[in-house]
Design a protein that fits this description.
The protein is of the alpha/beta class. It has 14 helices and eleven strands.
Amino acid sequence: MSEQKKTARRSMLKGAAIAAGAMSAPMVSRAQTVSLRFQSTWPAKDIFHEYANDFSKRVNDMAAGRLKIEVLPAGAVVPAFQLLDAVNKGTLDGGHGVVAYHYGKNSALALWGSGPAFGMDPNMVLAWHNYGGGKALLEEIYASLNIDVVSYLYGPMPTQPLGWFKKPVAKVEDMKGLKFRTVGLAVDVFTEMGTAVNPLPGGEIVPALDRGLIDAAEFNNATSDRVLGFPDVVKNCMLQSFHQSGEQFEILFNKTKLNGLPAELRTIIDVAVQASSADMSWKAIDRNSKDYEEMKKQGIKFYKTPDSVLRAQLAAWDKVINKKAGENALFKKVLESQRAYAARAGQWQNDYMVDFKMAYNHYFAKKKA
């Protein structure tokens, strides 16, 4: 064999070896899978835990074996309200919940869920968070608490009902003296309205209602309420409320753990959060509307919360936030940021958005004889 042919053969074999190595690289990468243990703040049967699993599956699928997030239900490692501390300490690598659950650490945290948000709907609150300064403020609050986590807010929730009651609420006075479950700053709002509040975690609400430990309660939505068993113990649900009309979910990561991931995996997580936010919104519309219809078939009575009660909520909210703003500089700072954003974005939305109820009634409302 000539020297020229030997050189060509060596080049060909070298190229084949490089190609074989490139083909085997994904297998090596998959062998180095990073596993993260998450916990949600929701029972395994709740649609909220399903949302957490939807997010983890989206990350796992896009990471193609390089990253695997496992999501455990509430209580598997720590109680629901201890999630933030567990993620901060590294007991958990991450979690899925809501910012309002951390209300006890700094009252300003409840402003990402409780209250009317100056007339912003939940998607507008997310817009404020991502583009209006909310994200930086949340990071500032966590830093002030020495909490070293990365927080992703996503998933605008539909307006939550006033709650489930043994008797329908007809006037503000009907709220007074009730033993009532809620969380976040809604605790202060309903307390201002005369109720005796007990901020129970989601999985404890229905048993407490059944045993008479509380008289009424709110949780979140038709699907969660139905699965948790509200219709089995109470037959009246009051729809529409300002106590949590602009809430969203929070995905938490331990900062050290997240920062230790390669840049491309962190990008996958970013994209998965955004994709999951959109998908959750669509799934909520589909599932909530189905479960609302099914509960009506089961004989559950739904009532619109009287305007007098809604106005009382706003009045109570104003008293609560004025007091909190005077006590907490960060609370005041978040409020001012939200107010400035809502003044602009709310004006735009209210002026531009058509009245969809008019079109719905045109096609589906019963015609008067």
